[in-house]
Amino acid sequence: MTGSGVPRDMLGRSALTRVPDARRLILDALSGIKPGSETVPLHMALDRISSADIIAGEDLPNCARSTMDGFAVVAADTFGASQSMPAYIDVAGEVLMGREPSGSVQRGTCFKIPTGGLVPPGADAVVMHEHTVEVDGRLIEVVKSVGAGSNVIKKGDDIRRQDVAVAAGKLLRPQELGLLAGLGIAEISVFRKISIGVLSTGDEVIDYTEPLVPGKIRNINSIVLAGACRRLGASVTDYGIVSDSEAAFFSTVEKAVAENDLVLFSGGSSVGVRDLGEQAIARLGDPGIIVHGVSLKPGKPVIIGLCGTTPVFGLPGHPVSAMVCFDLFVNPVIASISGRTDSEIQHPSVPARLMRNVNSAPGRLDVVRVSLSLENGEYRATPVLGKSGAISTLSRAHGYFLIAEDSQGCTSDETVEVILYQ
Fold first, then answer.
1. Whose CA, among 47, 72, 162, 178, lies 20 to 30 Å from 256?
2. What distance in Å separates the CA atoms of residue 298 and residue 296, rounded to the nearest whole number?
3. What is the pLDDT, as a whole number, of residue 345?
4. Model-level pTM?
5. Residue ranges per domain, the chain?
6. Mean predicted confidence (pLDDT) in 33-49
7. Cα–Cα distance, 107 to 110 (Å, whole number)
């Protein structure tokens, strides 16, 4: 879809796109696009994305192990055991950590065993130490029966040889790395980190390190957006602050598109310079503009385009609006082109009781920032009010909730689902 294919109203203005539709349009256009892969040592793979299924080369655990301190027994020897009628079992040996058991468990006998110890041949359960009474060094009373398999993790119970340990497209968290370490896997194939270019536009914008003078504002968006991208595992190039002139803006966007997998510019989607954003995306190649303007507050004037296979986002200049658009549109796109199979990432959320009425105009999706408090086991959500240029509202907020397009707002004491900032 080119710029001329963007939906327009009767007066020729770009019609607003619903948020779910806008997200679907760009994700569908990027379907199948994945970065190249590389092999990295396991200890360097945290927060990377697996590029192929990782297959278990062995059973885990490779032998049956006890999950409790106690005694390895034949479960049938404990049937009916109770405090008033204990079962008496001879202690025939002891399992030592890091060593194979010496001998086997016969009916009427048991081995003392520590947590993690190898279950000796013949035993099919472990009685917890707390459910035994030592008569002497060679005999115990069992005061609670166990079934076969109790307190034992069997060979392959965790994962079996030839099973998929980690599927392709999976974000590698510490727990995935632990599983792979348990399987003795030293290096794995992951997708290459995607590269993202970030730039700010506006003759009024200055570097955040410069003294503030009348008429100027410090560059907040580049720091915020670059940080958000890095937290998603991308590498970022900051192209600085670009003049509102056509020549400077176009050449910088063209360079960023050529050098990166995704490009973000902020400021160029507002009324004063929106044409520059549209023109740059349209000139850089098909399919061009996919979305310009969404039924969203804040964040209405966002531009979503595609230059070849490189997504380009024109985000509003106000920091709050820019981050709302980042969360709703850029975040899932980064996940998708990074190789994740679950590109529609579901952020953690909690139900909370709203502490005041919040009005909304029908026909748009409202994003309401809130701070949370926990009282009597219940979360309470207090709206953090402020204009879309007030960055402190993001700093004070723990998350946000959404008011649907067909709603006129939410009432005090209503339960809302608060999506948590991470």
1. 47
2. 6
3. 60
4. 0.86
5. 3-35+193-337, 37-60+157-191, 65-153, 349-420
6. 96
7. 8
